[in-house]
Design a protein that fits this description.
By secondary structure, the chain is mainly α. It has one domain. It is built from 7 helices and no strands. The longest helix is centred in the middle third of the chain and has 33 residues. The protein is globular, with a radius of gyration of 16 Å. The model has no long low-confidence stretch (mean pLDDT 85).
Length: 202
């Protein structure tokens, strides 16, 4: 039940993220809904492709889907209020969504006895895949591919699962890992942690 609730929070956060980008780019209502849904659920679809599950299974998450739609309609009806008052809280929800989806993706891959590489890729793509596709469709440079540490925490979640440190049948360990990834993401925002860049050619 707790993981389901966290899934809903993550879906709402990512749907709002996509909707706000669409509003900034002056998309119409259809464009806002499409970009929001892609941001919220594309990562899960990619994960299912990686681990061999039906892509359509993502749409069986009824509560997550309904919550994401409600959040996007709120953004459409009250765009100024959402942008003005929702950015900072949304960063917290986004961090929780990243942590939840990355761990979930890793556990999906571990469940089918995937290799360490499969688990890492499943964790990363579930956590950040939707955001990458959102930025590409909005013709923006994907933030995850620049200097942000966003994807690092998703990969860390995958590494922990692949090493067998989290037993999928021990819920408290799953929640503890989600908590650690969440805290690390928040710390990276607070202290502005960045990955090093290659030196510019002279």
């Amino acid at each position: 039940m707790a993981l389901t609730i966290l899934n809903i929070i993550g879906s709402v956060a990512f749907a709002l993220s996509g909707a706000l980008v669409a509003i900034e780019e002056e998309y119409d209502i259809f464009g806002i809904l499409v970009l929001g849904l892609i941001t919220a659920f594309a990562g899960g679809m990619i994960r299912n492709l990686i681990v061999g599950l039906p892509v359509a299974a993502v749409w069986h998450q009824t509560w997550s889907f309904a919550s994401a739609l409600i959040a996007m309609f709120v953004a459409i009806v009250f765009p100024v209020g959402v942008v003005k008052y929702g950015i900072k809280p949304m960063l917290l929800f986004d961090a929780m969504g990243l942590a939840t989806f990355a761990v979930e993706g890793a556990l999906y891959a571990e469940r089918i006895h995937g290799s360490a590489g499969t688990i890492l890729v499943a964790a990363a793509m579930t956590g950040v895949g939707g955001g990458v596709i959102r930025d590409v469709l909005a013709q923006r440079k994907p933030t995850v591919l620049r200097a942000d540490t966003y994807a690092v925490w998703a990969l860390l979640a995958g590494a922990v699962v692949s090493l067998g440190w989290v037993n999928p049948y021990t819920p408290w360990r799953i929640y503890a890992l989600i908590g650690v990834i969440f805290v690390l993401r928040i710390l990276s925002l607070v202290f502005n942690w960045r990955l090093p860049r290659a030196g510019k050619a002279t």
